[in-house]
Amino acid sequence: MFTSIDKLLINVKGNVPIFATGGKELFTNKTPKSDIDLCAGSRILQHFQNHWRALHDLNEQNAKSAQDVAENIEEIVENVTKSKSNIELISHIIKTVIPTGVTQCLEQLETLYTTCEAVEEKLVNLEILLDDLEFEQMVKRHKDLLADYKVKKQESLNDLKRTLEDEYQKKALVVEASKKVHLEERQKVFQEAFKHDLNVFKTLGTIPKVALPSGSQTSAILEEIQLDFDETELESFFNDDADQSNL
Hints:
The chain is mainly alpha-helical. It has a domain at about 1-25 and about 35-100. It is about 80% helix and about 0% strand. It is built from three helices and no strands. The radius of gyration is 81 Å and the shape is rod-shaped.
């Protein structure tokens, strides 16, 4: 719009002699030059035109900013509406749902507390049972160890018994051998004494008494005395006595 007005003014200045600045003069007779600036209006119009253009640009910027502000306001209104709806929903939940939920939570907490007490009691019983099982296992281990100890001890006693029996048999054999030698020596002594007494009796007709030392054995066991003599000598002795009695 301002561009078309500017072009129109330029055409007027070129076509109308009063606004012309060059070429032929308006009047043929010479007139004195005037101090009036004929282009002042154009410059004033250009000045206001520039201001008007600046105002127009500023108005467009303001319109754009207003549109942005309107969009922001709409977004804020939408957010406020949503917040209001959320607040109303929360308020409704607080008024209706939460009391019921709190009551249910309290009931669940009470049930949970009862369950925890029951679980705690069961855990105590389980701990007692585990202690009993551990004690039984310990008793079983000790019984097994005791049984093994008894078996080992019995084996050791059997080995000791066999060893003692072997030693006893060896010592018994030694004692029996020593006793046999002693009895053989005693038998030999008694046999020699008997022969001596028999010879004395044949010669003297009597057997002299032998004085035994004090504390010595005065009598001998008959079963322990075994005489080893020739029966022909005893028969000849009795035959000699019979002949003498006949004479």
